Amino acid sequence: MMEHEAEIRAFIAERFLFGADLKLTSDESFLESGVIDSTGVLELISFLEDRFKIKVDDNELVPENLDCIKGLCRFLGKKLSG
Description:
Layout: H1 5-16, H2 30-33, H3 38-52, H4 63-66, H5 69-81
């Protein structure tokens, strides 16, 4: 389910870490580590919707889906297979 991890990591590094790869662990919280703030979450959602042609519904805007790389990959896998 982590097949999109490299692409997600690249987007986060480019957009929020200014090209630096800080070696985020797969389950490290974006918000708690300060990598992404609430405005950044909106940018992340926009990236997911545009790149993967999905729609993130309001009820899916929860930390389990969007606050770490592992959660994003799991969420994306569900959206793309369902």
